[in-house]
Amino acid sequence: MAKFLYVYHGSGKMPTDEAERQAAMDAWNGWYGKLGSAVVDGGNPVGMSKTVLPGGKVENNGGSNPTAGYTIIEANDIDDAVAKAKDCPILKDPGFSVEIAPIIEMG
């Protein structure tokens, strides 16, 4: 099995209401449960990023498509990884997307 990186993109706020926060966690846990042993690293959300450009210029706030978090999974191929991502709870918000990239083992 190959490993794939899911990079979640979009900007949004974590729910502040406890019931909404719990519902979001339940949705993620349910999705991870469906993925089962395919989840290699459940990942985490990430904070606001900075991007270093050639010449040392720094962009704040992640640019036009900020990273929101990541997960690493195992799948048969990229099409299998794409199929697994389609049920990701982050996709319920139209401002978010999941980028999928194969992890290339070096060595």
How do you describe this structure in short?
With 107 residues, the chain is an alpha+beta fold. 24% of the residues lie in helices and 34% in strands.
Descriptors:
alpha+beta; two-stranded antiparallel ribbon; four-stranded antiparallel sheet; Dimeric_a/b-barrel; 107 residues; Alpha-Beta Plaits
List the helices and strands and how they pair.
Layout: E1 2-9, H1 18-35, E2 39-45, E3 50-52, E4 58-60, E5 67-75, H2 78-85, E6 97-102
Antiparallel strand pairs: 1-5, 1-6, 2-5, 3-4
How does the helix and strand content classify structurally?
alpha+beta
Tally of extended strands?
A: 6
Please give the radius of gyration in angstroms: 15 Å
Q: Per DSSP, what share of the residues sits in E-state strands of 2 or more residues?
A: 25-35%
Q: Which architecture does the CATH hierarchy give at level 2? A: 2-Layer Sandwich
Domains (count): 1
Average residue-wise pLDDT: 92
Quaternary structure annotation? single chain
CATH class: Alpha Beta
Helix amount: 10-25%
Unreliable stretches (pLDDT < 50, length at least 5) are none
The outline comes out as flat
What is the count of DSSP helices, taking H or I runs of 4+ residues?
2
Give the CA-CA distance, first to last residue: 17 Å
Strands ordered across the widest β-sheet: 2-5-1-6
CATH homologous superfamily (4th level) name: Dimeric alpha+beta barrel
| CATH structural fold name | Alpha-Beta Plaits
Order of helices and strands: EHEEEEHE
